[in-house]
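=== RUN LOG ===
request id: a7f3
mode: sequence -> structure
chains: 1
length: 693
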Amino acid sequence: MPTPSTSSSNSHDRDQLSINTIRTLAMDAVQKANSGHPGTPMALAPVGYTLWSRFLRYHPEHPDWPNRDRFVLSVGHASMLLYSLLHLAGVVEIDEHGKASGKPAVSLSDIEQFRQLDSKTPGHPEYRMTTGVETTTGPLGQGCANSVGMAMAERWLGERFNRPGATLFDYKVYNLCGDGDMMEGVSSEAASIAGHLKLANLCWIYDNNTITIEGHTELAFDEDVATRFKGYGWNTLHVTDANDTEALARALETFRQTTDAPTLIVVDSVIGYGSPNKHNTAGAHGEPLGVDEIKLTKQAYGWPEDSSFLVPEEVRTHLREALLARSAEQYEGWQRTFASLKQSEPNLADEFERMRQGEMPEHWADAQQVFDADAKGQATRAAGGKVLNAFAEQIPWLIGGSADLSPSTKTNLTFEGAGSFSAKDYSGRNLHFGIREHAMGSIANGLALSYIRPYTSTFLVFSDYMKPPIRLASIMELPVIFVFTHDSIGVGEDGPTHQPIEHLTQLRATPGLLTLRPGDANETTQAWKTALAQTNRPSCIILSRQPMATLDRSVYAAAEGVAQGAYVLADAVAGQQPEVILIATGSEVGLAVQAYEKLKADGVAARVVSMPCWELFEDQDPAYREQVLPKAVTARVAIEQAGPMGWDRYVGNTGAKVVMNSFGASAPIEKLQAKFGFTVDNVVKLAREQMQK
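=== RESULT ===
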C-alpha cells in the first residue's frame, strides 16, 4: 500500500492525515514499549490537533516565550498525544541553561524510545525533562489544579506588567482532562475557586469517554458534569463528537470570546477511536492494542499496515507552519513591547527578568528580622509572620495565602499595597484559597511554573491533604514554600485530630524537600531566608502555636547556623569533649537548652545541637557533620514532639529519644508535656543514663 498522501490544496484531508499520524505514532510507540495507553491519544488526536493548529499561541522556536498559551495534559497517561504534537510542531529543545540547543524537543527517535530509561518520552509527561511539557502530570486532577495556578498567574502578571497599549501578558490556559480528573476531589476544589475568581482565560476540555480501568464509568460515576460546573460559575459547552473538528473549533472560539467565566468544553469521544473494533478499551487499561489490531486500524486509515512510526512528508512541517503563521508576528510584537518596557521602566523590566531567571531582587536578604533575647518569647508562627512581611516587601512577586487560616498561621501580608487577589482585583498578593488544602498546593505549583514565588499555609496536621502537590513540587524542583503551623502536641486542647505526630517523618521522607523546623524567632528568620534562597527545591517551614523563648545569641551560637541544617547551639567549655549531646528541633530546642543549663550547673560537659533541617545537615561535608556530632560521643538524647522514625541515624541504637510513640491527647499543653516526657527533669535523667552507658 502506498504512503498516505493528499493534495496540498485540500487542507481538510491534510488535517485528517495529521490526525491519523498522531494516532499511528501513539499506537506504534505503545506497541514497541509494550506498555502505555494508546486509546486516549487516538480518541483525542482531533482535539489536540485542532487546538494546536488553529488556536494555540505558541512559537515552536521559542517554547519558553512568557506569553505563550499553556497546554496542560492533565490526562498524563495520554502522554503520546503531547509527544506527537511536540514532534509535529517542530518544537526546539531548551537546554538546562535556558538556551535553545538547536535539537528537536521530541524527535522521532525519542518517540521510538517511549517509556525507556533516560528517554525524553517517559510514561507520563515530566517537567524539565522534555521541552514543551508545562507541568508534570500523571496523578489525576493535578494538571487541572496546576492550570488554575497558571491562569491566576496570568491575571496577576497582567496587572503588574501590562500598560495601556502595551500588553505583555494575556495568555490563555488550556487543560485536557478526563473522567478520572473529574472524579478526583482536587479538580473540584480547583474548579470551584476558578469559577469564584472568574478566570476567563482558563479552558478545560473534558474528554467524556465514559471508560476507566474497571470498565464503564456507570460503575461509579453518573453525575451531570456540565451542570456541576455551571454551579461553580463556569461557562459550559458540549461537542458531541470528538472527530467533529469544526464543532470543536466553534466551542474554542466561544471560549476565546468569553470574558466573565472559565469555560468547560465537554467532548464526547470513543476511546481508541479509529480501530475497526471501536469499543476496544485496551488503551484505557494501559495495554498495547496488539499487532493484528494495529494492522486493521492502519488499513482503516489508508495507512501502510506494515509501516512503523511513519510521518508522511505532507504533514511533517504542516503543524509547525500553522503555529508560526499565527504566532511568529505576535512573538516579535511581544519582544518589541518588552524592549520598550526596558526603556520606559527599566526597574520593572529588570524585575521580570529576575522572575524569569528565578533570581531575587538585590539586597532582599537585608530585610531579615533580628529579635532581641526574650525569656517569654513568642510563637514561631508569630515571628514567621513578621519575617514573611519584611521579606515580601522586598520581593514583589512573593505572593501566597492560606486554606482559610491566615489569622492562625500569621501569613497574611499586611503592608500597604499588599491587597487581596480577587475577581475584582487581580493585583492583590494575598491569596484566599478557602478550605481547599489539596488544590492550594497544586495551584501554588502552577504559580511557581509561571515565574511567581508562591507560599501556602495551614496546620501541620493538614499536610496530609497536601502530600500529592508537595511531592510533585519536589519532582519538578519548584521552590514553593509550604508553611505549616501548630507543629506538635503543643496544640493542646484541640486533641489528637489536630496534633501532628507522623507528619515530620512523611515530609522528611520526600526526596529533595527541605523541612525546616526553627527553634526560636531568630531561627525562624533564617528558615525563611534559607527557603527563599532556594531555586530548585521546595521547602516546608514548620512553626509553633505556643510561645518559646527567644534565645540570647550573645550567650548561645548565632542562628545563621540554620543554613547548615544543624549546628552547635550550646557547648562545653572550649577544648572540652562533651559527655552528652542533646539534639532537638523546633519548640524542643528551648527544652534542650534548659536541660543543658541544669547539667552544666551540675558540672556535666553537655552540648546542645539545634537541628532545624535534616536535609541541609546531610548536605554538609563529613568534616562538618563530625564537628557537630562527633562519633566518639555516643551518649545522645534526641528531643522532638513527633514520631521516632529516623532519629536512630543521629542517636544510634543505644541513644535515648524523647519523642511521641502514640497519638496525643486533649489537655492543656503543660499536662501534655508532663504526660509524654517533655520536661527538663526527664531530659536530664535520660542524659545521665546515657552517660552511665
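=== NOTES ===
The longest strand covers residues 202-208.
Confidence is low (pLDDT under 50) at residues 278-284.
=== END ===
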